[in-house]
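To whoever is on call:

I kicked off a structure prediction for a single chain this morning and the downstream step that reads the tokens threw a length-mismatch warning. I double-checked the sequence; it's 84 residues and nothing unusual in it as far as I can see. Pasting both halves so you can look.
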Amino acid sequence: MSPRTKRIRDEETSSAEVESLAYEAALTELEALVARLEAGAPLDEALQLYERGQALAAHCGRLLERAELRLRELTPGAEDTDNA
């Protein structure tokens, strides 16, 4: 297997693993990654942490959007309060 193929497979596995995380688990991991970056991780590790953090942040955002949509569906007149 070529290094490029392995990297693509690793990214796909990582992406699927991130998507399976609950919001709280993803947020906790994201906070830990930020702490490691702020502590001054070496460049190679920092790049990997950043990539993982981007995936986690996007996942958290999607989960929050879904939760907001569900709340709007469950709350009569919720659309009216957005412009207040």
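Update from on-call: the warning came from a stale cache, not from the record. Cleared it. Sanity check on the structure: Residues 26-66 form one domain.
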